[in-house]
């Protein structure tokens, strides 16, 4: 496991030094401008709108960064020939995947929580202390980002970076519409279509069912056991994708 | 890969077929490579471009899987092997010291041993002053030298170098030659590819020549460069273009191979 | 002595000068092209007509259009249309007074975000201004059903019934909603008083003033403006009587709010 951590530390260092964290600055600037604008036109609802739009922005920025950082994971190592440096040493393919994922997760933790904390402080400054659920919502967005990363890493083990990125984004979008797929499974008109719909429903991550944004703005109520269940689902899904990534990657030649 | 103490590298009947192109056309890169590298030998692996030298090394290291045949390393594991890939670039944002630190950790070196070995490796390749600089600012020659440093970080028994002289200025080449010479004197086993035949002739105890996925000649350097005249270059061209020649000194027991 | 061959040496004198002139000319041409492009882009943008939210042909999609959105984004869409609705109302209330798209906006925002309390309250007043009293009533009934913990929606509904309903039982109906509001934990103390007042006979203006006072205390900018207008019409013109009529409203709001309200309503009497 220490080799996986060595790879994780290296990956973290590489991505941080690649100025990924500038995205937090871009987010911060965008939110400041938005908050000034919202305060004048939202009719006293700036707290709600800032939290709602802010969490959408955290999710959007987070997913896009995660996808593009993960998509080139394998190809970059091959192009740079660093894959020869790594695998000419006693490093397992699984350790490599795990290490890469852990390193990227650490980077994305800084990105997502950096944006969330900034949003929390900005809402506090503009509209009074927000609920702590805002920070928990940020945590959930982080878990969703991890799932998207794991999916994109899986695609990156056999597809070119651009394709892996596009597929990762598609899975994220499909995950937001997962409940529509569920309704297809209940059509009752065509057994084949129903069966196929069930497969798609099970395979695509159900992001629409595990979001805390509606809870933050008061549309939904969720207790801690529900939230824990959602978190467990996302973690399990990411683990499955990493396992599949390992299965593909172990057969790869360089 | 299996372990056998008899030879440092033992390759028998190695074949490798790949599919290329849209129509997945099968191309046989290695057509039955037989190569043995004894302990303590310094072997130059020569061949024209596309002969299969790099593929042979990669299969020996487990980076690729053979289609048939075997490749065995006579060491306990990859932690006793050092490898320098051809035309390597490295992680842009790591410094030289950080790269060596990463390699040392991957090899399982303890913290104390890591620091010591990193300092020694940097000194060996003359990069102490640039150790803190990010690799993206290294020149080609510096990258090659840090690559050699990472290949030696674990004080390996078996060292595989793919074109170690690439990108080096004359001073750099002298330093690398000095390193290989030292490794040879210490009894390490070195297998390296190079197109600079003069260096091969100078540094190696043995030479293996590949052509079109096969080893067509293997033997001591003296057999390839007769004392009476001729050069390794001439010999190489003759073997590669016309087919192998029988070694002049048959008593050396060197297995000259005719194809 | 061999003559110097300047051309071989890469040009001193005329060749170098010609090279410099060529570089200068190229730089000028590139600069002019860039300037022209910048001017073109700016001119194009500046001459775009601003899309007015007061455009009567505004298209507001049906809530069904967004039904399939993930809950994460449904509320964000609702918020975006909330902003659009507020802008739309603001421009039309100052402009032509036409609110054709308003019912669609209100329905969209409240259907996508059923617990958006403020949307019901603002929407109901806006619909009243648009002459859509029945729509406003139904909106608040939906809001009360979806938000059983919102005393504000119930109080607003009670006020709306009392003020605008054309029914002999409106006092009783309004009082029922005030009583429901009073039963919500955390509701203000004055609500039961208002409910009780509604059930007493007579004193219509006083009851209305009480309810508009509550609207002033808890409403947004638009609601407060409307409350001021209504209170000004309801309260006596005599300064002393007006002052006395204002007193019961003090219990509904903070001292600062009451001070502001009194200043405005008393100040109106002084304005010719």
Give structural notes:
- The complex is a heterotrimer of chains A (254), B (259) and C (272).
- With 254 residues, chain A is mainly α.
- Helices cover 79% and strands 0% of the residues of chain A.
- Chain A is built from 12 helices and no strands.
- The longest helix of chain A has 35 residues, at 93-127.
- In chain B, the strands form 2 sheets. Chain B has a 6-stranded mixed beta sheet with strand order 5-6-7-3-8-9, sandwiched between helices. A 3-stranded antiparallel beta sheet of chain B has the order 2-1-4.
- In chain B, helix 2 (96-106) crosses helix 3.
- The longest helix of chain B is centred in the C-terminal third of the chain and has 16 residues, at 170-185.
- In chain B, 48% of the residues are buried.
- Mean pLDDT of chain B is 85; it is low at 1-5 and 247-259.
- Chain C is built from 12 helices and no strands.
- Chain C has helices at residues 14-46, 71-94, 102-112, 117-129, 133-146, 151-164, 170-182, 190-199, 204-218, 221-234, 239-246, 255-270.
- Chain C is mainly α and 272 residues long.
- The chains are: A mainly alpha (254), B alpha/beta (259), C mainly alpha (272).
- Chains in contact: A-B, A-C.
- The interface between A and B is medium-sized, with 23 and 32 residues.
């Amino acid at each position: 496991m220490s080799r996986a951590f060595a790879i994780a530390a290296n990956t973290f260092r590489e991505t941080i030094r690649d100025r990924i964290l500038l995205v937090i600055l871009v987010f911060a600037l965008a939110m400041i401008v938005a908050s000034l604008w919202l305060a004048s036109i939202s009719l006293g609802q700036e707290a709600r709108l800032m939290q709602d739009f802010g969490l959408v922005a955290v999710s959007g920025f987070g997913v896009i960064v995660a996808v593009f950082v993960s998509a080139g994971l394998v190809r970059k190592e091959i192009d740079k020939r660093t894959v020869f440096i790594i695998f000419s040493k006693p490093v397992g393919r699984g350790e490599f995947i795990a290490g890469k994922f852990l390193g990227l997760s650490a980077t994305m933790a800084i990105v997502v929580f950096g944006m969330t904390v900034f949003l929390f402080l900005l809402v506090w400054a503009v509209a009074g202390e927000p609920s702590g659920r805002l920070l928990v919502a940020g945590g959930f967005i982080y878990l969703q980002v991890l799932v998207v990363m794991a999916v994109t890493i899986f695609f990156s083990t056999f597809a070119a970076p651009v394709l892996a990125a596009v597929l990762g984004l598609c899975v994220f979008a499909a995950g937001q519409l997962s409940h529509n797929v569920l309704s297809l499974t209940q059509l009752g008109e065509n057994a084949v279509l129903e069966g196929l719909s069930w497969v798609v429903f099970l395979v695509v991550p159900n992001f629409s069912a595990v979001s805390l944004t509606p809870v933050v703005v008061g549309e939904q109520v969720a207790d801690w056991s529900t939230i824990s269940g959602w978190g467990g689902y996302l973690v399990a899904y990411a683990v499955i994708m990493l396992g599949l990534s390992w299965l593909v990657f172990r057969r790869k030649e360089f | 890969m299996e372990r056998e103490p008899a030879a440092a590298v033992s390759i028998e009947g190695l074949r490798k077929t790949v599919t290329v192109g849209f129509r997945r056309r099968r191309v046989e890169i290695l057509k039955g490579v037989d190569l043995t590298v004894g302990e303590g030998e310094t072997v130059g692996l020569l061949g024209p471009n596309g002969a299969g030298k790099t593929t042979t090394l990669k299969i020996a290291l487990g980076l690729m899987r053979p289609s048939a045949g075997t490749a065995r390393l006579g060491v306990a594991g990859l932690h006793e092997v050092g490898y320098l890939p051809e035309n390597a670039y490295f992680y842009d944002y790591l410094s030289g010291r950080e790269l060596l630190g990463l390699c040392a950790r991957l090899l399982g070196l303890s913290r104390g041993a890591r620091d010591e070995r990193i300092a020694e490796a940097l000194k060996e390749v003359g990069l102490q002053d640039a150790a803190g600089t990010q690799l993206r600012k290294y020149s080609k020659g510096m990258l090659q030298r840090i690559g050699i440093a990472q290949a030696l970080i674990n004080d390996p028994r078996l060292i595989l170098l793919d074109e170690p002289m690439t990108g080096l200025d004359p001073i750099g080449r002298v330093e690398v030659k000095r390193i290989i010479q030292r490794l040879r004197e210490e009894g390490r086993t070195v297998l390296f590819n190079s197109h600079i035949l003069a260096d091969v002739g100078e540094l190696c105890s043995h030479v293996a020549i590949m052509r079109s996925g096969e080893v067509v000649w293997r033997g001591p350097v003296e057999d390839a460069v007769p004392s009476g005249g001729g050069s390794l270059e001439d010999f190489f061209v003759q073997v590669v273009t016309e087919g192998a020649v029988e070694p002049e000194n048959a008593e050396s027991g060197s297995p000259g191979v005719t194809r | 002595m061999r003559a110097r061959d300047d051309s071989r040496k890469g040009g001193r004198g005329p060749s170098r000068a010609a090279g410099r002139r060529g570089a200068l000319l190229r730089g000028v041409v590139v600069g002019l092209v860039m300037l022209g492009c910048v001017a073109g882009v700016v001119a194009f943008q500046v001459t775009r007509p601003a899309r007015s939210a007061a455009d009567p042909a505004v298209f507001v999609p049906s809530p069904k259009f967004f039904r399939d959105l993930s809950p994460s984004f449904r509320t964000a869409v609702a918020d975006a249309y909330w902003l659009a609705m507020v802008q739309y109302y603001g421009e039309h209330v100052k402009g032509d007074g036409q609110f054709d798209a308003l019912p669609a906006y209100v329905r969209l925002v409240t259907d996508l975000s059923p617990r958006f309390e403020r949307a019901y309250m603002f929407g109901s007043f806006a619909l009243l201004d648009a002459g859509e009293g029945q729509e406003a009533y139904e909106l608040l009934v939906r809001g009360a059903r979806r938000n059983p913990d919102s005393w504000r929606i119930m109080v607003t509904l009670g006020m709306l019934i009392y003020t605008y309903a054309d029914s002999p039982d409106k006092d009783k109906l309004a009082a029922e909603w005030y009583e429901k509001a009073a039963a919500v934990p955390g509701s203000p103390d004055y609500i039961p008083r208002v409910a009780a007042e509604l059930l007493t006979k007579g004193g219509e203006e006083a009851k209305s003033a009480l309810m508009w006072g509550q609207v002033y205390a808890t409403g947004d900018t638009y609601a407060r403006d409307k409350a001021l207008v209504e209170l000004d019409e309801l309260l006596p013109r005599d300064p002393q009587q007006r002052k006395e009529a204002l007193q019961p409203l003090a219990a509904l709001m903070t001292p600062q709010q009451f001070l502001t309200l009194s200043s405005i309503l008393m100040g109106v009497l002084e304005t010719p």
